[in-house]
Amino acid sequence: MSDLRVTVDGRELEATWHDDAPETRRALERELPLEGEAVRWGDELYFDVPLDAPAENQSEAVPVGAIAYWPTGDKLCLFWGPTPASRGEEPRATAPVNVVGRLEDVSALSDLEGGARVRFDVEN
């Protein structure tokens, strides 16, 4: 088993896998490392990923720090606060996502001003 490593504009963030979407997790692990220029949408970053994963255990409302895959749009997403789709302060995706992990501390993302370079990898 390996631990997930997420880097956003050179900021290394601790993250853990969740087993809520096991097929999506396995598909992501096969593609690692993944890297891309992320777009910011409220307090969410997302970028394109070449992934073939089904919709599983989907939700629009997600916890702070959620790492999720949006199968409809082939995007990997990081959530740390409200988005334009939110109701109050909850992080909310524009459409249902598969939550595959969680960032332990999102404070390093609070001062992002736009998009960012994001990298997903594992530590063995």
UniProtKB/TrEMBL annotation:
Domain Cyclophilin TM1367-like: 4-119
Matching Pfam families: Cyclophil_like
Classification via InterPro entries: Cyclophilin-like_dom_sf, Cyclophilin_TM1367
Protein name (Swiss-Prot/TrEMBL): Cyclophilin TM1367-like domain-containing protein
Source species: Halostagnicola kamekurae
